[in-house]
Design brief:
The complex is a heterodimer. Chain A is of the alpha/beta class. Helices cover 34% and strands 18% of the residues of chain A. Chain A is globular and about 80 Å long. Chain B is built from eight helices and six strands, in the order E-H-E-E-E-H-E-H-H-E-H-H-H-H. Classes of the chains: A alpha/beta, B alpha/beta. Chains A and B meet through strand 1, strand 8, helix 10, helix 13 and strand 20 of A and helix 1, strand 2, helix 2 and helix 3 of B.
């Protein structure tokens, strides 16, 4: 009797990793980004796979193209906007094709839970001319991953695998399978295959169009695109998480064409389905990717006329907009549900820098992507712009050039984190040096890629696998680029920061300030950091009789400090990390180390 | 597969919504509950939110269980049980409760940014608002902090209340919980779980 494999609860991300493992993947890389991060982290548990973080998504994708050219099954993971960074190799890689299976996971974020855009990356499949898979839950994610590798190898084409936040971060029962070990073909140089010159790419383009024709046939045949007949009065065409919501809303009151393989779309199957049902709804999140195709086939359908282009779907929304069934919960008033936005944590090493930046007059601050984006929030409000990864430096260059052109003398300060600096800040800084930009760049190095859950990066000395890495020191890069004015500071030293910002204001050329201190949530410091940082051991407390209720400490926006009307400020000692910023700003010495009352 | 007779009778998929503030241990309770429901023979889906919300923001998860579960989360009016770890967050999520649904909530209060930056006062009268929904159970965790060995175990108290409410056995709940936490915290968690479980028995 065949042993039945166990079922376990896995998130969609864990299921992707499991699927890749079972598919025999050999090389995997990516850059952390919510909601994709746990895919690569989960892959790292499988010793058979070489899984490592890359410096950014473009590099990750180029690495896996290299290993797929070499004949090995290879996987890259990234979030929606990460694929923008990696778009360059995606397009030419589609032309060249691959030898070993090559799958690129794009984790999209309908509802913008943790992203700056709600972009629908299915269009990348259309644009770059690569096949597209869209699982709707964990079990499908695992199974489709194996099929994705087979399709990639059979058609010698890279494959896009589109996840969304709710598929990534929902757990469901998954039946585990065994890993298959593929013996890679032996790599031999073939100049007609992997060298992207115009002459060869003219040929490759024709071949790519042929592959897509064949893949459309496969799309019509595959069981990933299936029909479930229920009531034929309503036919629902759907994909991804929207399928699960639609099933919840309609149940057997509709028939379904569920699409798991959405580029090329199965035109013949869509036409067949449309003949079996009376009215068609196309249900998908964000853009009308399937709907446009259905309508172009001459089929009358309802989609974005009733469903929004913005935000996520859920079953209530579908029931209300398409069936007119309204389910309502009780109402609440806004005054009793105050906002609870994310904030810089207690003891966050970014707080000191943003506090001092918030005190500067006539200054434009260009921010970047990471925890420190929260420096833009109340009460610090110390940021003018956040555009994308790396723009903390390059947008500063732009402001400075614009101001110079119109004779405005405002100071321009760019802020960027350690991982973001490695990801795409280095090129911007090189540009600032080359063009002699009069900007100040604050690099906030908290020894971790913190926002996405403390991944190691190129400056922390450890790799994803736990193996030692060659630590790249930010100061060495800055100096090698030719920055003349370079300063290092402890970001918890407010007086030092204030003085440094003042002293550097008149210097010529780009100025770089490296503010280095570990993230307060890091459970363990990288080995080389243990003797470097003298982490605070004591907490702070308010001497109640000395508090003048001036609320100065509240301007730090520390979640451990609260104000009791009539009584004054209080520090929650269970959450205080002892960073001492409140002690430094209190004008009346009312805040002291616990047990210390020497004024 | 174990018998599911121990767990509440149900006709279709049930939804539990958990809400609180990042750092309150909502994910642990969600994981334990999901595992318990799987052990009791249900199809289970659980939805979490990661990333920026964890930095002191409002955090919620949903657990759905039944014969066959489709959506991993529901919108307004979809929750059979709302489990609130913090009072204002419980209030914020009341629209998710089904008519006839149950609200179980801790009396803990955690100031949010407008409060700790001195702009607004923490809202008053939330208990009365929550009671208006009909079936609500306030769990006085703040009174028990010294009994249970610290504020860190409030989540385990709530797990105890929820497990009893769903008709899941104490021993089974304890066994699953202890597999997910470090041994040195076992004793305190046992105590907190028992406190919640016994409290729910009396309701």
């Amino acid at each position: 009797m065949r042993w039945k494999m166990p079922k376990v609860l896995l998130s969609g991300n864990e299921a992707c990793a499991r699927g890749a493992y079972e598919a025999g993947v050999q090389v995997a890389c990516g850059y952390p980004g919510t909601p994709s991060t746990e895919i690569l982290e989960s892959l790292a548990q499988y010793r058979e796979i070489d899984s490592e973080w890359s410096i950014n998504e473009k590099v990750a994708l180029e690495i896996i193209f290299g290993s797929a050219f070499a004949g090995l099954r290879s996987l890259a993971t990234m979030k929606n906007v990460g694929l923008n960074v990696a778009a360059d190799p995606l397009f030419s890689g589609a032309y060249l094709g691959v030898e070993g299976g090559c799958v690129i996971i794009s984790a999209d974020d309908p509802g913008l839970h943790s992203s700056q855009t709600e972009q629908d990356n299915r269009y990348y499949a259309l644009h770059a001319k690569v096949p597209l898979f869209e699982p709707s839950d964990s079990q499908e994610a695992k199974e489709m991953m194996k099929t994705a590798f087979e399709v990639s190898e059979q058609y010698k084409i890279p494959v896009l695998f589109r996840m969304t936040t709710r598929v990534c971060h929902s757990k469901g029962l998954v039946e585990l399978g065994e890993r298959i070990e593929k013996t890679p073909t032996v790599y031999r140089r073939d100049l007609t295959r992997f060298v992207a010159t115009p002459a060869r790419c003219r040929v490759h383009h024709g071949e790519l169009e042929q592959k897509l024709k064949a893949l459309e046939e496969w799309s019509n045949e595959t069981g990933l695109n299936f029909i479930e007949m229920g009531d034929p009065k309503i036919g629902v065409i759907t994909s991804g998480i929207a399928y699960q919501h639609a099933k919840e809303a309609f149940g057997s009151r509709a028939s379904f064409l569920k699409l798991g393989f959405t580029h090329p779309l199965p035109s013949r199957k869509i036409i067949d389905f449309s003949r079996k049902v009376e009215r068609i709804y196309v249900i998908e999140e964000n853009d009308p990717f399937i709907e446009n195709h259905v309508k172009a086939l001459g089929i009358s359908a309802i989609g974005k006329e009733r469903l929004s282009l913005c935000g996520e779907l859920n079953s209530e929304m579908i029931a209300s907009r398409l069936l007119g069934e309204n389910v309502s919960g009780c109402e609440i008033t806004e005054e009793k549900a105050l906002p609870r936005p994310p904030v810089l944590c207690s003891g966050c090493p970014h707080r000191g820098v943003f506090y001092e930046l918030s005190q500067l007059k006539d200054t434009v601050i260009t921010g970047d992507i990471g925890c420190y984006t929260l420096g833009s929030a109340e009460p610090l409000n110390a940021m003018d712009t956040v555009l994308c990864m790396g723009a903390g430096i390059s947008a500063a260059i732009g402001f400075e050039r614009a101001f110079k052109k119109i004779g405005r003398t405002s100071r321009v300060i760019g802020v960027i984190g350690d991982s973001t600096f490695f990801h795409s800040g280095i090129t911007g800084l090189a540009d600032a040096v080359f063009n002699r930009s009069q900007i100040t760049v604050c690099i906030l190095d908290n020894r971790s890629t913190a926002m996405t859950g403390h991944q190691n990066n190129h400056g922390t000395g450890l790799r994803l696998s736990g193996k030692p890495a060659t630590e790249i020191e930010i100061k060495d890069i800055v100096k090698a680029l030719g920055v003349e004015h370079f300063f290092e500071i402890n970001p918890n030293d407010l007086a030092g920061l204030k003085a440094l910002l003042k002293e550097t204001a008149a210097l010529e050329g780009p100025i770089v300030i490296l503010a280095q201190w570990p993230c307060a949530l890091l459970k363990e410091l990288p080995p080389q950091d243990r003797s470097k940082f003298d982490l605070p051991q004591s907490k702070y407390t308010v001497q109640e009789d000395m508090c003048k209720k001036c609320k100065k400490c509240l301007t730090l926006g520390c979640p451990s400090i609260s104000f009791i009307p009539g009584a004054g400020s209080r520090i929650d000692e269970s959450t205080c990390k002892g960073c001492s910023l409140c002690y430094q700003v209190c004008p009346f010495h009312a805040i002291q180390k616990r047990g210390d009352r020497n004024v | 597969m174990r018998s599911r007779s121990a767990v509440i009778e149900m006709s279709d998929t049930k939804t539990v919504v958990l809400v609180g503030v990042g750092g309150q241990g909502i994910l642990l309770v969600s994981k334990v509950l999901s595992e318990l429901l799987v052990q009791n023979g249900y199809d289970v889906k659980m939805s979490e939110v990661h990333g920026m919300a964890q930095r002191g923001g409002s955090v919620s998860t949903q657990i759905r269980f039944g014969e066959k579960v489709n959506s991993p989360f529901m919108g307004y009016g979809g929750a059979d049980i709302l489990l609130g770890f913090e009072k204002m967050e419980t209030y914020r999520f009341l629209p998710y409760v089904k008519s006839g649904g149950t609200v179980i909530y801790a009396d803990a209060t955690i100031p949010s940014a407008p409060v700790f930056s001195g702009k607004k006062a923490y809202p008053q009268g939330l208990d009365a608002e929550i009671e208006k929904t009909g079936r609500s159970l306030r769990v006085p965790v703040t009174e028990w902090v010294s009994d249970i060995g610290g504020a860190n175990y409030q989540n385990t108290v709530l797990l105890g209340v929820l497990a009893k409410t769903l008709g899941i056995g104490f021993d089974q709940t304890e066994a699953v919980l202890l597999t997910m936490i470090n041994k040195k915290y076992h004793e305190k968690n046992r105590k907190a779980l028992s406190k919640g479980y016994e409290f729910a028995k009396g309701q």
